[in-house]
Amino acid sequence: MAGASLLALIDDIATVLDDIALMSKVAARKTAGVLGDDLALNAEQVSGVRADRELPVVWAVAKGSFRNKLILVPAALVISALAPWAIVPLLMLGGLYLCFEGCEKLAHKFLHAEEAVQEKAALREASRNTDIDRVAWEKQKISGAIRTDFILSAEIIVIALGTVADVDWVTRIGVICAIALLMTVGVYGLVALIVKLDDAGDYLLRRKGEGVWHRLQRWFGGGLLSFAPWLMKALAVVGTLAMFTVGGSILVHGLAPVEAGIHHLTQWLAEGIALLAAILPVLLQALFGVLAGALVLLVVEGVKRMRK
To answer: What's the pLDDT tens digit per position in 243-276?
Structure first.
């Protein structure tokens, strides 16, 4: 009898773990866009730091990110228990903020190009300046990165919470904790690898020797040095696109008339074309995200002008 009870308990635990793994995969897919943006932003945050201080700075930001999760995860679970009706509005606000942030980045890049160039020049000057307080400068960058992480982590956890809103409590807690842990370890592990790509390339490029293996190492090192800046640019572009696709998708799913309109438009334009039927809804959701973000940006800029 005791053996049967133990086997039943083990079977229940296995079922719960299987449910957690399955729902974690679903939540991870829905938060992938924000994770891409989180990765790009955090990789940019450590730019300008001396090579020997890059990993300590990444580790300091990662510890701050863990502290953020210790605040956000319990808060999300409390909201889920006491005010489940607030999940959808919070999800919509998160999606709208993503779209606004994407439009703000584009506006800053294309409408304030000179200011963006000046910011990059100031960053390069600060990294070369030996007269500034390096400790205070690093602390400032770390604080800014942790604040950015808090906002993006809140968005990711709310999106994950919306994914598991209808499952049992054990699965819900397991999925939220798993997503919080995996995204922190994954994002900052990748950030550490990305920021050290150029150092690895420089090390391989300086390898001495005339054999085929040494020449191959130098060639690969030169390739890494050339690839690292392109990777940073690609991450920034992918992160911005992901803001509109993820944010637009959240907004569309929360607005039934818009979702129905996109569904009918897709059926009309992509009738009989499977590939277009799969791609078109994503494009239309991203376009809706761009329009929503642009509208919020106009309102925010209008309020700023009125205050001035």
So the answer is: 788 788 888 888 888 888 888 888 887 777 777 7
At residue 240, the pLDDT reads 78
How many structural domains are present in the chain? 1
> Could you list the residue range(s) of the whole structural domain that residue 241 is in?
2-307
Distances (CA, A) of 156 to 11, 27, 163, 211: 31, 9, 11, 49
Give the integer Cα–Cα distance in Å for 93 and 96.
5
Q: To 5 degrees, how large is the angle CA 37–CA 43–CA 45? A: 100
Taking the CA atoms of 109, 111, 112 and 114 in sequence, report the sign of the dihedral they define. positive
Distance CA(102)–CA(96), nearest Å, equals 10
- Structure-token pair, residue 122: 């100031």
Tens digits of residue pLDDT in 109-160? 777 656 655 555 555 555 555 545 566 777 777 787 787 778 778 777 877 7
Whole-angstrom distance, CA of residue 65 vs CA of residue 71: 10
Torsion, CA 208, CA 210, CA 215, CA 216, rounded to 10:
-110
